Each structure stands twice: as C-alpha cells, then as structure tokens.
C-alpha cells in the first residue's frame, strides 16, 4: 500500500530531488552568474590597464577610445548575464514550487479526510502555501550562488596568477580557508538561524497565546498587566538574543575582515614592490597595471562567498520548511490508491468482506466485518461515541482503505456525504453547490436549494447565488449550513448517501426538516447509510446495525 | 500616494520615537561604507604613488614617498570596516528587537479593546494567523527600507564632496548620476513593483483559503468525486499568482541590471572626464586612481536597495491589515461603575442580537428576570445562542435591540474594571496560558497566597493531582493548556474563577469533560462558593452529569428564542 521510497524522504533529499527537476535552468543560471562575474574581471583588469596607460605612459584619452568602448561593452554584457542569471533562477524556482505544491496537495488527498480532520487546517495551509513559498529563496538565490562560489574564485585566481603569482599564491593560501570559513559561517549562520528561529517562534507563540486568551484577560480585568507583559517578554528576548548574536555575528565580521585584509595586504605588497623595496620573485616585474589589477581582483575573490553568506538564511529557512513538508509526505497514506473492485452482486452498493481498519498509531480499531449493503436500503449505524461507527462509515465511504479484508463498491459511483458540521467553502453559494456537481446549471441549483428549504433565505441574499458566504461573506447558522449541505445531496443525484450524525446539534425546526428529507431520499430509492443515535431516524430505517463491545451486530427491527 | 503615506504614518511615527537609535544605526552603516571606500581609494592612491615614485627612482630622479602614513591609513580603514560592520549589525539588530517590543505592545493595546464580536468573529482565524507575520514585516521595515536609502544618500553626499576637493565638475556629475541611481533603486523600484508585490500577498491569501477548503471539504470532495475540479481551481489560482510573481521578478531583475549599467557607465564616464583633466595636468595620477576606485566601490550602497523597495507593496498590505485591526477600536471606553456591595439582579428586556454579515438574528426578543442571589439554568443545543447570550449579559457584546440590565445598569455601559470586579464567567472555551498552574490561577487574583491556591484546587478536586506532580504548582500547562486534559483544563479555569468574589456568575458547561463523581464534588464546592451570588448555568441538557445545585429557574434556548420551562 505504501511505497518505501516516500517513507525515507529527508528534507535534504527532497530538496535535491526538486532541484533535479530544474537542473538545466539552475545550472544555466549559475553559468550566467559566472559569466557576469567574468565580465567584472574584464572591467577591473581593463580599468587597470587604462589607468596604467594614462598615468604611466601618458597616452591621451582619445587614443584609448577602444579600451573605453571595451569597458562599456563589458558593462552592458555583465548586465545581460545578470539578467539571465536572475530570470533563469526565478523561472526554476517558480516551476519547482509549483511541482512541490502539487506533490503536497496530492499527498493530502491520499491521506484522506480521516487523517485531515485530526490536523489543524490552518497549519496545513501554512505548509502548502507559506512553507512552499519559502523554498523560493533557496532555489532562486542560494542554490545557483553556491555553484558560482565554486567556480568564480578559481577564475579570478587564474587571472591573478597570470598577473602576479605571489598575489595568486596569497589568495590560494586563503583558498583552503574558504571551505573552512564557509563551514564557520555556515555553522554560525545555522546556529544563529536555529536559535533565532526557536526563540522567535517561542516569542510569537507567547504573543499569540495572550491574544487568543484576550477574552479571559478582559474578564479578569488584567489586560494592561498582560500588555506590559508582552513588552517585557519581547524585551527580555532581546537581551537574551543579543548575547548569542554577539558570537553569531562574528562570522559575518570574519568575512568582512578577510576581504578588507586582502585589499590591505595586496596594496602594501604592490606598493612596496613598485617602490622596489621587495626584490623577490615577480615583485620586480610589477607595474601599475598588474598591481592595480590584482588589488581590484582581491575583493572580487571573496565577493561570491560574501553573497553566499547573505543568502545563507534562505537555505536554513528552506530546510526548516522542507522538514515540516517532508513530515507530511512521509505519513502513510490512508486512502487506497487502487481503483475499487466491483461488488460481486449487481444489486449491492457496497460489500465488505472480513474488512479491518488499523491506524498506524493505534493498531486495529474495528473488524473483521462482513457487511453487504443492498441498493435502495436504509441502514443506520449506532453505538456509543468512540465505538467505531464513524470509522466504519469512513471505511464505507472509502476515506480509509481496509488494512485487511476486501472493500468493494460500484466503480466510479458518486455518493453523497453529509456530516454534522457541513463544510462551507470560502466562496459564493454557486461554488459551494458546485462542490457536489461542477456541471450543474443555475436552475438546478435553485431547485435543489428550494427543496432543501433554503428558498426563503435565498431571497434575502443580496446577490442571490453569487453571494459570498462564510468568512468572507454572509455568515450562515448551523441549521442554514445543514440545509445547504442537503441541497448538495439533492443536486448530486448520487444514488448512495452516507450521513454522519446529520441531526446532531440542530435546532428543532431544522432537525425536523432534515428528518423528513431523509425519509424522502429513502423513498426515491437512494441507498442511505446513517450513523446516528436519534431514535426517530433509527425507527425509520430498514436495517439497524449497532456496535456493542466493539462488535458490529444487526439489531432486529 | 497620499493614501499610502497615511496608512504608513502611525507606524512610522512609532519608529520616529526611536529616532536616536535609528540615526546612530544608520551612521554606523554609513561608517562601514565609507571605511570600505576609503580603504579602496587610499590603496589605489598608494599604489599609483608608489609606481610613479618607483619609476622616478629608476630613472635616477630624486623622489620621496612617505609610506608610513598611507600604510597606517590602509591598515586603519581595513580594521575600521571590519569593526564597524560588526558593531553595526549588533546595534541595528538590537534596534529591530526593541522596535518589535514597541510594535507588539501597541498592537496588543488595540486588541485589548476588542469586544467578543471581533475577538471571536468568523474572521478571527484569518487575522490571528497573519498577526505576527504582519508585525514582523513592519519590523523589517527599519532595516530594509529606512536605513539603506538614508545611508546611500549620505554616501552620495560624502563621496561627491570628497571628490569635489580636486575635481568639482566630476563631483557634480557623480552627484547627479548617483542621485538618479538612488531614485531608480528606491522610487522607481517601489512604484514599479508596488501593485505586483501587493497582489502577491493577496494571491497568497487566496491560495491559502483554497487549500484550507481542500482540507476541510476533503470528505465532500472525495465522495462527490470533485477533487479534480477543486484542484483545477487551485492550479488556476496558482498560475495566476506565479504569472504575477514572474512579472515582479523580471522587473526586479531589470532594475538590478539598470543599477549595474548606470553604475558601470558612471565609472567609465568619470574615468574618461578625469583622464581629460589629467591630460591637462590639473590633477595628479594618484588622485585620478583614487577617484576611479571610489566610484567603482560606491555602487555597493545601492545593490541591496531595489530588492527591498520592489516589495514595498507587500509591506503596504501588512500595514493595511494591521490598520484594519487597530482602526475604530479607539471609541471611548464605557465608564459607568456599579455601586459596591449591592446584590445584583439580572433583567433582560426585548433583547435581540444580530451579527453583522448574518441573515438571521442570533438572539430574538429575549425577556427574563432573575432576582439577586438566585440561580437559573438555560439549556440549549450548540448554536442555539448560549454563548451570544452570555456575552451580552456580561456586557461584552452590544445587543442590536433591547438590553441586559444588571443592578439597574445596562451591562454594555459598564466600565471594564467594574465588569471585572462584579462579574465572572466560565467561558465555553477556557483559555489557559503558556505558564505555570500558579500563574494561570493568579490571573484572577495576583495577590492570592499559595494556601488560597491549594484551597481552590481542592474545591475542584485537583489538589491530589497537583500534589503528585514533580513541580507542583509551578508545573507548566503548555500552550493552550495542552499538557492538561480537557476536563482538567476546565477545572483549573473553574478554580481560577473561585479566586474572585463577583456578584454575578455565569458558568457555561461547568461539568463538561468530568465524570459523575467529580461533577458531584464540583457541584458541592460550587454550591458553597455561589452562596449569595446571582448565577446562570448554561448547559447542553439536563442530566445526571449536570448536577446543578440550588437552581430555581429554567429557560430553554432554541434558535435564539428563549422559552420558560418547568423545573423538574
């Protein structure tokens, strides 16, 4: 049922797999970055030569027009490569995020309603939207920059070596330090990020905790004390985190130090060499051109690393987001991936053969159950809460695949679902009805709403079917929402209707209405399976199944 | 433009209050920038001077160059740049965190004035989930949008003035070009990306809603086999969002290119004009090189600007949302006080309540009277309007029509202090804070002694449980009281209530989540504590699990309508 490869995902392997899908663009972006960097080399070396010609050889500017135009060309070329670098990685990151989000949403579908109801929908949405978007920085900036950091310094080293091998040697000696410093910066940044992340989220949690409990704070009249408390908590966090930051910021200071020292050392070396104070190796051959060029190349040598360290938090953030997403991707799917087998008999709607349900965390919860529901039957399930009737209903609905035994249902048969808290989509009445039947016409919708007793309400709605309902629009009461859900059942024309406590928590009028509607549906010849403990519903059913001490028994009516 | 400024204004004023920190922080960044430029410029000067001196010496012309002062300068600037960078980061981070405390303090202050309709309204989950992120966005405003452009501007002034010592014409050219560059990197970027980055936030919210729908409606989507239909909706929305992001990203890339081209062209142009001046021997070689290198390095102040400014629209979206929260909560607080030590009766006259955005009233024309010191029960299923009625009675919601009067005063007009002193309510959803048991209890009475805490814990039959906890009263209850079971949480909340001495008490499902024996224990303790207080119990239904002591009145609530019932 569950393939092992999905279980073994780690945040890193997932990010790598995502990068693989856009390898060409990402590499292209890195290549453009290196080419842009090489144009910078041309600019600084050209500038050094130009100055040498002007100052030392006293050539007139007019005679150097070709160099000036070379510089102009390089400046423009550099901008073009920069454009390529940025747009390619942008495109790659967009496509990667699209793919990652689709993967996550697929997984949510495969996990099914049973798993999803145990989760906080807001935090799942966070993962599918914000956390996936966080990957942007990693793929658009960090990933190509890491490749640039491996190539560009080598190129600069080569040019510097051609100009003056002592300077190149100096840079080369610091080269083994680069991985060291990268690790140092990495660790620093990682620790900084991690500490900050933990502290910031704890602090945000504290703040949200107080906001969420505002009712209680108001009731006890201690809002101003809590407001002071919010300030002190944040300020206390500031004092605490400044202590760790003192260390963590050292890593960025080290990089700054390195590029400053490189300039200083090269300047001193070149200066003394040109004055003739150093008579060793290539220093006697130093000219203003080569000296100036290596001086300008020295900071460029460290620039890719500095840029990388600026993007380092993108990596940490992406890893954090990937971790939470991978946690979901690694959950074993509850919904069967296979198509349903058709029942043995044409007359049955659903057949269960020695079917069991087991949750990974709780083991087997119900089963083995043998049950055949004939088309047109009205079946009620009863039992104390927690006895397993909701699980059985979920099994019948296909929300959870049997861990053992067989589940057979008419292939591609649509069925209707109604539970005690009908879901309202953030959208118009039309959107909410289309949920049951995307192709339905407005007339059909009107008819279904009227039949569900929503008619009088509809006339009050300012924009009729286009009225937004729910959080962004008109609020519906529990009873009104249940009528809307009933309209979905009518609209779908599904021959099989599964209902989980459809009358619980309703006002008396709506409860009566829903009861009548259920009887009507039964008379139409639809198959009804209802989990309920409402005596009147049980009395109206043809078959009554009850959970007693974990066993499903048929109660004679 | 003015509207945008007006929305930002209250938050900018908050930043202005810390202007000294702000200016010092900007100054430190500026020093870092200048030290870097000085290092590069001085190095260029030194190399060129050395080269010329070296050539002169080689030709046998007597020449001298003081190497100690420039050498010391180079070392000094190298060190200064490192130190300034370190101090700057530390200092500015400190400022950012101070601002965070200010911002949260301010926003929290606004939220304390919310009534129940806004705290628990349907949109509550929406703003709550974005609240900290929005505040963080504003917090970042300082480091990303205020300091860098100021530093860049100061850098332009300093560099131009410095160059003007030798080459006033070129300095003017530089000032104009860099000013132009500054405008491109800030204003042009902001204006160009504004609608896209604003749209990006809107798109993200729409996408979020669609995903929440997919999760919440998963049962319906699966059974009606409309998952694909819904996924198509998500894909369309996502595509639209990505098209917008693509356009934004390309504009950002273009502005980055523009900044790169302008600064590159400026270097070439400055060198060209400087070489003309040099050719006429109006300026020396070392100075020419120094100017060229400074111009080469100055673009560092501009590199990060476009990326920040192109996202101004996103900051604006955050500000708009925060403004929506903090607006119209400044209405004058009610000030009427109840007289002390008078028994309070409850009288409800023709009370109706209708939430904005709903079609039907939550409460319809409710009338009842409860004499002082008596106890009543109101039954009703969930959604019948119990919580709404409780909120109106407590003065936490304004009735649409009619009023709830306690002790002769409409509760909506009572001051917050008066309500806190005279009323107490066990809410349906109890709030425990991420703190210790003792701290949670002392919310009701900060001065309560440990003995008093044990007393109330005993009243709710939790003393034995707390005693056997290793940390006793100082045990943390976790976020939202998650370390406690639902029943324990309610009992802690009930114990907390017993630390106050109100005249009117409302208990919403006081026995939810406890077994019959505990319910009886609680009932006995409550009976004692409720003596001489006016009490209303709200329960789902009468049952042996709801032993309501001393109740003399019973009303039933169904779909917002109240009816009198006979007491069994």
Automatic annotation (TrEMBL), chain A:
Lineage: Bacteria, Pseudomonadati, Pseudomonadota, Gammaproteobacteria, Oceanospirillales
GO cellular component: a single term: plasma membrane
Gene transcribed to yield this protein: cydD
Protein name in UniProt: Thiol reductant ABC exporter subunit CydD
Domain of life: Bacteria
Subcellular location: Cell membrane
One annotated GO biological process: cysteine transport
CDD domains the record matches: ABC_6TM_AarD_CydD
Keyword tRNA-binding included in the entry's annotation: no
GO molecular function, one term: ABC-type transporter activity
Domain ABC transporter stretches: 350-555
Topology versus the membrane: Multi-pass membrane protein
The keyword Cell inner membrane is assigned to this record: no
UniProt keywords, alphabetically: ATP-binding, Membrane, Nucleotide-binding, Transmembrane, Transmembrane helix
InterPro entries, sorted: AAA+_ATPase (IPR003593), ABC1_TM_dom (IPR011527), ABC1_TM_sf (IPR036640), ABC_transporter-like_ATP-bd (IPR003439), ABC_transporter-like_CS (IPR017871), ABC_transptr_CydD (IPR014216), P-loop_NTPase (IPR027417), Type_1_exporter (IPR039421)
Domain annotation ABC transmembrane type-1: ranges: 27-317
Membrane spanning stretches: 26-50, 62-81, 146-163, 169-189, 247-272, 284-302
SUPFAM superfamilies (alphabetical): ABC transporter transmembrane region, P-loop containing nucleoside triphosphate hydrolases
Residue runs in coiled coils: none
Major location category of this protein: membrane
TrEMBL record, chain B:
GO process annotations (BP): cell redox homeostasis; glutathione transmembrane transport
Family matches, as Gene3D superfamilies: ABC transporter type 1, transmembrane domain, P-loop containing nucleotide triphosphate hydrolases
Key words, A-Z: ATP-binding, Membrane, Nucleotide-binding, Transmembrane, Transmembrane helix
Its membrane topology: Multi-pass membrane protein
PROSITE patterns recorded: ABC_TM1F, ABC_TRANSPORTER_2
Domain ABC transmembrane type-1: 23-314
Origin superkingdom: Bacteria
Transmembrane segment boundaries: 21-39, 145-166, 172-194, 253-275, 287-310
Compartments in which it is found: Cell membrane
GO CC annotations on file: plasma membrane
Primary subcellular site in the record, as a coarse category: membrane
GO MF terms held by the record: ABC-type transporter activity; ATP binding; ATP hydrolysis activity; ATPase-coupled lipid transmembrane transporter activity
Domain named ABC transporter: residues: 346-567
InterPro entries reported in the protein's UniProt record: AAA+_ATPase, ABC1_TM_dom, ABC1_TM_sf, ABC_CydC/D, ABC_transporter-like_ATP-bd, P-loop_NTPase, Type_1_exporter
Protein name according to UniProt: Thiol reductant ABC exporter subunit CydC
Organism whose genome encodes this protein: Vreelandella sedimenti
Gene name per UniProt: cydC
């Amino acid at each position: 049922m569950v393939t092992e490869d999905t279980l073994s995902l780690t945040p890193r392997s997932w990010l790598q797999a995502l990068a693989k899908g856009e390898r060409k663009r990402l590499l292209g972006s890195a290549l453009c970055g290196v080419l842009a960097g090489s144009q910078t080399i041309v600019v600084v070396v050209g500038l050094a030569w130009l100055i040498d010609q002007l100052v030392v050889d006293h050539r007139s500017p007019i005679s150097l027009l070709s160099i000036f135009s070379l510089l102009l060309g390089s400046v423009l070329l550099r901008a073009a490569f920069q454009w390529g670098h940025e747009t390619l990685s942008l495109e790659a990151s967009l496509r990667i995020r699209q793919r990652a989000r689709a993967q996550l949403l697929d997984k949510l579908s495969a996990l099914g309603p049973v798993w999803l109801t145990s989760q906080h929908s807001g935090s799942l949405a966070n993962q599918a939207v914000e956390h996936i978007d966080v990957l942007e920085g990693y793929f658009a900036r960090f990933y190509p920059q890491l490749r640039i950091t491996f190539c560009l310094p080598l190129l600069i080293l080569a040019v510097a070596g051609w100009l003056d091998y002592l300077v190149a040697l100096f840079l080369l000696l610091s080269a083994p330090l680069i991985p060291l410093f990268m690790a140092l910066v990495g660790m620093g940044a990682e620790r900084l990020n991690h500490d900050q992340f933990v502290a910031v989220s704890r602090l945000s949690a504290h703040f949200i905790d107080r906001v969420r409990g505002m009712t209680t704070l108001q009731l006890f009249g201690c809002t101003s004390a809590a407001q002071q408390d919010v300030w002190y908590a944040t300020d206390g966090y500031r004092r605490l985190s400044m202590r760790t930051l003192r260390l963590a910021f050292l890593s960025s200071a080290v990089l700054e130090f390195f590029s400053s020292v490189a300039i200083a050392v090269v300047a001193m070396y070149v200066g003394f060499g040109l004055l003739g104070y150093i008579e060793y190796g290539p220093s006697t051959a130093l000219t203003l051109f080569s000296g100036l060029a290596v001086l300008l190349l020295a900071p460029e040598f460290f620039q890719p690393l500095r840029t990388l360290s600026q993007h380092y938090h993108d990596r940490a953030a992406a890893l954090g987001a990937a971790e939470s997403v991978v946690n979901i991707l690694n959950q074993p799917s509850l919904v069967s991936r296979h198509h349903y087998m058709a029942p043995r008999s044409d007359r049955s709607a659903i057949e269960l053969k020695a079917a069991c349900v087991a949750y990974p965390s709780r083991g087997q919860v119900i089963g083995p159950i043998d049950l055949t529901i004939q088309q047109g039957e009205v079946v009620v399930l009863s039992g104390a809460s927690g006895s397993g009737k909701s699980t059985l209903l979920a099994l019948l609905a296909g929300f959870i695949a049997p861990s053992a035994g067989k589940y057979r249902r008419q292939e591609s048969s649509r069925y209707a679902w109604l539970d005690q808290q009908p879901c309202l989509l953030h959208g118009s009445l039309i959107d909410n009805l289309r949920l049951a039947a995307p192709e339905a016409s407005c007339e059909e919708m009107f008819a279904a709403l009227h039949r569900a007793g929503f008619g009088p309400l509809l006339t009050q709605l300012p924009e009729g079917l286009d009225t937004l309902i729910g959080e962004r629009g008109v609020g519906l009461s529990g009873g009104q929402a249940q009528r809307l859900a009933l309209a979905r059942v009518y609209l779908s024309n599904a021959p099989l209707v599964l209902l989980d406590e459809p009358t619980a928590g309703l006002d008396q009028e709506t409860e009566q209405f829903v009861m009548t509607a259920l009887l009507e549906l039964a008379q139409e010849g639809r198959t009804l399976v209802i989990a309920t403990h409402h005596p009147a519903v049980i009395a109206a059913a043809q078959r009554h199944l009850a959970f007693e001490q974990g066993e499903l028994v048929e109660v004679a009516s | 433009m003015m509207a945008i400024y007006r929305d930002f204004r209250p938050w900018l004023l908050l930043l202005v209050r810390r202007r000294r920190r702000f200016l010092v922080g900007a100054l430190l960044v500026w020093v870092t920038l200048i030290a870097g430029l000085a290092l590069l410029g001085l190095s260029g000067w030194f190399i060129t001077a050395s080269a010329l001196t070296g050539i002169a010496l080689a030709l046998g012309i007597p020449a001298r160059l003081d190497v100690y002062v420039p050498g010391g300068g180079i070392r000094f600037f190298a060190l200064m740049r490192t130190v300034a960078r370190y101090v700057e980061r530390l200092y500015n981070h400190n400022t950012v965190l101070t601002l965070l405390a200010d911002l949260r303090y301010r926003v929290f202050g606004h939220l304390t004035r919310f009534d129940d309709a806004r705290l628990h309204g349907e949109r509550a989950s929406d703003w709550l989930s974005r609240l900290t992120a929005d505040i963080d966005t504003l917090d970042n405003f300082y480091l990303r949008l205020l300091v860098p452009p100021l530093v860049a501007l100061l850098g332009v002034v300093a560099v131009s003035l410095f160059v003007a010592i030798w080459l006033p014409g070129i300095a003017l050219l530089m000032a104009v070009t860099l000013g132009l560059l500054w405008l491109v990197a800030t204003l042009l970027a902001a204006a160009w990306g504004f609608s896209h980055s604003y749209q990006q936030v809107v798109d993200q919210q729409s996408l979020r809603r669609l995903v929440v729908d997919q999760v919440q409606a998963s049962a319906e989507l699966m059974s009606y086999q409309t998952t694909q239909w819904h996924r198509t909706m998500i894909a369309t929305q996502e595509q639209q969002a990505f098209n917008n992001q693509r356009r934004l990203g390309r504009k950002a890339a273009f502005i980055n290119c523009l900044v790169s081209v302008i600064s590159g062209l400026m270097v070439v142009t400055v060198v060209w004009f400087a070489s003309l001046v040099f050719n006429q021997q109006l300026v020396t070689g070392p100075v020419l090189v120094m100017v060229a290198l400074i111009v080469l390095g100055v673009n560092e102040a501009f590199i990060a600007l476009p990326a920040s400014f192109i996202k101004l629209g996103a900051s604006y979206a955050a500000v708009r949302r925060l403004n929506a929260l903090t607006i119209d909560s400044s209405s004058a607080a009610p000030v009427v006080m109840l007289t002390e030590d008078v028994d309070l009766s409850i009288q409800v006259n023709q009370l109706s309540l209708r939430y904005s955005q709903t079609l039907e009233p939550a409460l319809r024309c409710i009338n009842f009277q409860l004499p002082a010191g008596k106890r009543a029960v109101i039954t009703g299923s969930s959604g019948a309007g119990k919580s709404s009625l409780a909120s109106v009675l407590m003065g936490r919601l304004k009735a649409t029509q009619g009023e709830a009067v306690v002790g002769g005063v409409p509760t909506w007009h009572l001051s917050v202090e008066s309500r806190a002193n005279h009323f107490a309510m066990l809410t349906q959803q109890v709030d425990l804070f991420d703190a210790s048991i003792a701290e949670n209890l002392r919310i009701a009475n900060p001065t309560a002694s440990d003995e008093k805490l044990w007393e109330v814990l005993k009243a709710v039959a939790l003393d034995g449980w707390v005693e056997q906890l290793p940390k006793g009263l100082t045990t943390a209850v976790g976020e939202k009281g998650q370390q406690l079971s639902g029943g324990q949480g309610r009992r802690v909340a009930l114990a907390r209530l017993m630390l106050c001495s109100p005249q009117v008490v409302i208990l919403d499902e006081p026995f939810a989540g406890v077994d019959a024996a505990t319910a009886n224990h609680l009932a006995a303790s409550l009976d004692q504590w409720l003596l001489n207080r006016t009490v209303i119990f709200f329960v789902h239904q009468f049952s042996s699990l709801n032993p309501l002591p001393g109740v003399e009145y019973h009303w039933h609530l169904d779909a917002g309508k109240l009816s009198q019932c006979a007491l069994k």
